[in-house]
Amino acid sequence: MTQVHENIVGLDSGILMHPKIWEASGHVNAFHDPLVDCKHCNSRYRADEFSDDIENIHWKEIQCPKCGTTGKLTDPRQFNLMFKTHVGPVEESGTEAYLRPETAQGIYVNYQLVQGAMRMKVPFGIAQIGKAFRNEIVARNFIFRTREFEQMEMQYFVKPGTDDDVLEEWKEKRFHFYPDVLGINENKIRYRQHGDNELAHYAKEAWDVEYEFPFGWSEIEGIHNRKDFDLSQHQDFSGKNLAYFDQPNNDRFLPYIIETSAGLNRMLLAVLADAYWEDEENNRVVMKLHPRLAPMEAVICPLVKKDGLPEKAREIVDMLKPHFKVLYDQQGSIGKRYYRQDEAGTPFGITVDHQTTEDDTVTIRQRDTQQQDRVAVESIIQKLIELTNNWPD
Ligand code: GAP
Question: For a Cys staple, 150 with which of 48, 264, 300, 316, CB 3.0–4.6 Å?
């Protein structure tokens, strides 16, 4: 966001913010999930797990998925998702604060400061990565839904009237990010538009990028048109004029906001699910991660633990360390070492063997094809860069 786009800057705002911010944003009154309980086995569910149209369900006819009892589910109750705490030593009313449920509000309350300091002109964006906290009724599906997670949000400030077109532009860009940058299979992502009954309190229009996880299609990122909802609320609550002055046109307006809101943890889960490959022909499990995303880019292995091969392998590790994330492994047979790294997604295996001591060459093995090429030690860096840049989609 901030490197490729000249009109987007980064920010790191507070996690604890004044409770008035969350009143202004609407989160105190409207950031709820509907909760139903089973009075027989005490299981707890999000009501929308049963249907998108929870208003028209006859709850007394629904069976509890856990204990199988019918007629014991309660009607939905609204449950606020924010974590509350107290600022200062005494827990009394007036000292309450909330852990942020989205990073976005930290951007809105700092928008004028950032715009002035960075001399930004509409349209411009402010992006931020950081922890968000939600007291989810049920946290499940591994890291898909947790109570503490990392958001990567970008708020794009635009002139009212241009918002619909800008939303389309960001929808397009964000969709292509998944196959083009993360290497995710295009057939496993799609857009889903929010219906009127599921739109967040701030949204005029909302789209989810969904990934087809092993447990079904689910949201990984939201693209929203938030209009001037947030800025006008903060303006009202703070009494401070938050209008943007458009000097060339001598015009003042509250910008509309197009938001791209991605979850790092969900994105990671999608990358892992997408990369998982059972290579039956070779009886191995492979994480087909793009080299850019792999936790380790190369493993360096001496073929045997003697004859000077470990020392030479260590030299190569030291040579590569400033350029790539690499690790050294001499434990077990070479085949086992390769397979261990295939499972961890390491794309390249560099082996030092007896020929290395004669002609200063090594083999570079590619994880997915298992193809091996002999390369001069002095050319390893260049070769790894080439292989990474030409990595197949
Ligand atoms: N600022 C807008 C906003 O927060 P959201 O759709 O509620 O929108 C955005 O959340 C993204 O944050 C989601 O697409 C998801 O990736 C991530 N996210 C939300 N709740 C989460 C949770 N409990 N655990 C992990 N990620 C979550």
Answer: 264
C-alpha span between 77 and 36 (Å, rounded): 7
Distance (Å) from CA 134 to ligand 1 centroid: 9
385 closest CA partner among 327, 334, 320: 320
Distances in whole angstroms, Cα of residue 200 to Cα of each of 72, 137, 141: 29, 18, 23
Separation in Å, CA 185 to CA 208, 266, 368? 17, 16, 16
Mode of pairing for the β-strands spanning 32-37 and 77-80 = antiparallel
Cα of 265 to ligand 1 centre, how many Å? 10
| Each residue's pLDDT tens digit, 110-131 | 999 999 999 999 999 999 999 9
Tell me if residue 200 falls in helix, strand or coil: coil
Give the DSSP per-residue string, 358-385: HHSEEEEEETTT--EEEEEGGGHHHHHH
Strands 244-246 vs 251-253: parallel, antiparallel or unpaired:
antiparallel
Residues lining ligand 1, CB < 6 A? 102, 104, 134, 136, 145-146, 149, 151, 153, 219-222, 259, 261-263, 265-266
Please list the ranges in the chain whose pLDDT falls under 70: none
Decide: 212 and 206 in contact? Cβ < 8 Å. Answer: no
